[in-house]
Amino acid sequence: MTPTSPILFFDSGVGGLSVLQPTRALLANAPIVYAADSAAFPYGTRSEAEIAARVPALLGRLVERFHPRLAVIACNTASTIALDHVRAALEIPVVGTVPAIKPAAEMSRSRVVGVLGTEATVRQPYVDDLAARFAADCTVLRHGSADLVALAEARLAGEPVSQAAVTAAVRPLLDQPVGERMDVVVLACTHFPLLARELADALPNVRQVDGGSGIARRIAYLTRGQEWPAEPREGTAVFTGPPPAPDLTRALAGYGLSRIEQL
Questions:
Q1: Given CB 3.0 to 4.6 Å as the disulfide criterion, which of 29, 66, 97, 232 pairs with 228?
Q2: Alpha helices by DSSP H, 11-47
Q3: CB 62 within 8 A of CB 28
Q4: Which is more confidently placed, 240 or 157?
Q5: 132 burial class (0-12, 13-18, 19+ CB within 10 angstroms)?
């Protein structure tokens, strides 16, 4: 490993930028490679078997190409399904992204917590286990929304996002029994913090919790004592599908990802 060995972030789309951003705040000079499996986007509507096979294979190719010091699966769906497979396949540390149910339960006064994710994430036994371990005295409501993922991608691509569309996408969470008592919602998809303002309007008086800052602290801990470049370097965004549109390319540059490549 050299000072220029990057941190590799992986997601199906651009949601993982909500994890990259707090990481940059802690490790400003860290070289970054951000990989988006845009050819298979969105993961939330794909089968568990497909994700479990696809994600380790792609990460293996990315590790061979970029030689990162650490990999971050900045995607709740991929983490809840494929994290163990990836760790078994790679010889570098791998940080996953899991729903922040524990801190949400600690915050909740009403003892009604929402989990807003993709359809694939909210149905995982891993989420059952987190709820049983850390929110046993709470009612945990779940809703999976592919529409919110698409809206978040549109937002970063410079397209207008309708408040009415966001409100309609989260309405099924409130319409569940005791949904009106929910006072904390877990953003169990890394895309959703990109819609924090619209979600706040759609879910008034409901606190939002996501794992971005905690993951950034974990990355900083695992790389403590390692050497970094003396100053920030140009980051790389890698896409498995076609190159991004100009508006998205400009948005990526705002996150320090000014070099675009394809896998």
A1: 29
A2: 17-26
A3: no
A4: 240
A5: exposed
Question: pLDDT for 142-199, tens place per residue?
Answer: 999 999 999 999 988 889 999 999 999 999 999 999 999 999 999 999 999 999 999 9
Specify the pLDDT at position 1. 83
- Residue tagged 């987190």 (tokens): 130
Residue keyed to tokens 């974990």: 218
Catalytic one among 55, 98, 135, 189?
189
Residues 21, 22, 24, 28, Cα dihedral to 10°: 150
With bands split at pLDDT 50, 70 and 90, how would you rate the model's confidence at 250? very high
Residue 217 three-state SS: helix
Which pLDDT score is estimated for 44?
Answer: 86
Whose structure tokens read 């994700």?
51
In which residue are the tokens 């819609």 written?
A: 195
* 126 phi and psi angles, rounded to 5 deg: -60, -40
Q: How far apart are CA 129 and CA 78, in angstroms?
A: 17
Does residue 138 have an active-site annotation? no
pTM, whole model, 2 decimals? 0.93
- 251 pLDDT band, cuts 50/70/90, is very high
Closest-CA residue to 19 (of 105, 91, 116, 95)? 95
Residue 132 vs residues 21, 120, 170, 247: alpha-carbon distances, Å: 31, 19, 24, 43
DSSP tag of 6:
P
* Annotated catalytic residue within 75, 138, 206, 251: 75
Question: What's the rounded Cα separation, in Å, for the pair 80 and 96?
Answer: 8
Q: Both tokens of residue 148?
A: 């919110």
- Report which residue type is found at 225: G
| Tokens read off for 217 | 């602290």
Q: Which residue has the tokens 């009106």?
A: 180
Q: How far apart are CA 93 and CA 231, in angstroms?
A: 24
